[in-house]
Amino acid sequence: MNTHRPDRAASLHRLGAGRLARVMLAACAALAVLPAAQAQDEPERKVLKVCQDPNNMPFSNLAAEGIENKLAEVFGQALGLPVEYYSFPARLAFIRNTLRYKLPGEDYRCDIVMGVPVGFDQVSVTKPYYRSTYAMVYAQGRGLDDVKTVQDFLALPPERRNRLRIGLYDRTPASAWLNKHGLVDQGVPYQMMSPDPAQYPGELLEKELAAGKVDVAIVWGPIAGFFAKRVSEPRLAVLPMPSEPGVRFDYEMAMGVRYGEREWKQQVEKLLETRRAEITAILRDFRVPLVGEGGTALP
Fold it and tell me: Does residue 199 form part of some domain?
């Protein structure tokens, strides 16, 4: 990961942008608007072919240990199909090189993306299967144990709060939140879409926050929950962040298939309904902060 502090002007530009490039932390900076697609002839499926990032925990990895890997296993069992993965780093052109890539006379590389934000128009998006929110994370035992909510953090005396270094990935809603609350000078931005294939979303928590290079981090909720569970020392506290006027933190997540494959999309959506209990159990096991609209925490 690129962990150097950019010059102040560049930092202010990033921190004031406040635009969600992609909830999965790896997507195109601008979404291409696709025309309405015609229905396609859909072949009989003999294998469930899943598009994945090979190093994107807690979502997916080559060892099939992530949330989306576990969901694929549930779907494969329900369909009576073996699960295969096509792995490609989720940087620019991920969808073009996975779900939509097909050479003449060959099959598509994969048929489903297990996690995309609702509104992502490079794919045909299914009904959502969970909603999560960004979270504030800090290391316990380092002077912030009295902070139990985001409002507690904002209520800290300025002389105390203004000494804190707040780590965040650039081009996320955390940028707009810092700007709104006059905390830009405390922001320590990190690259979201680093060209380094070894980079993974949890580095900000597992390396930077744990080592004390930042005092607080703001990351997407599933990342916060998973790495707070995985990091044993120091223990990490996770505070889900409700959306505010002008700053949206909570997003619905769905699955993505190719445009025109209506029967396949309907089949996926049926599985989302019939396997809801198993899906929720997986999300809970990975400690995904599940919220209602507006970021209100669910029981």
Answer: yes
30 Cβ contact list (under 8 Å, min separation 6)? none
Whether residue 125 is found in the same domain as residue 267:
yes
> How much is the average pLDDT of 247-268?
97
Q: Per-residue pLDDT tens for 158-207?
A: 999 999 999 999 889 999 999 999 999 999 999 876 777 778 889 999 99
Contact between 82 and 76 (Cβ < 8 Å): yes
* Paired strand residues for 148: none
Residue 114 domain-assigned? yes
Residue type, 200: Y
Rg of the chain over all Cα atoms, to the nearest angstrom: 20
Q: Which domain holds residue 163?
A: 8-25+133-240
Return the closest-CA partner of residue 58 out of 298, 282, 208, 295: 282
Return the H-helix or E-strand segment holding 236: strand 236-240
Residue 241 has which token pair? 């962040």
CA count, 13 A, side-chain hemisphere, 279:
23
Sequence letter at residue 284:
R
Are 12 and 87 within one domain? Answer: no
Give the count of domains, the chain: 2
Q: Do 142 and 209 contact (CB within 8 A), yes or no?
A: no
CA distance 129 to 283: 10
Residues 6 or more apart whose CB falls under 8 angstroms from that of 23 comprise: 117, 220, 251, 253
Q: Is the same domain home to 123 and 256?
A: yes
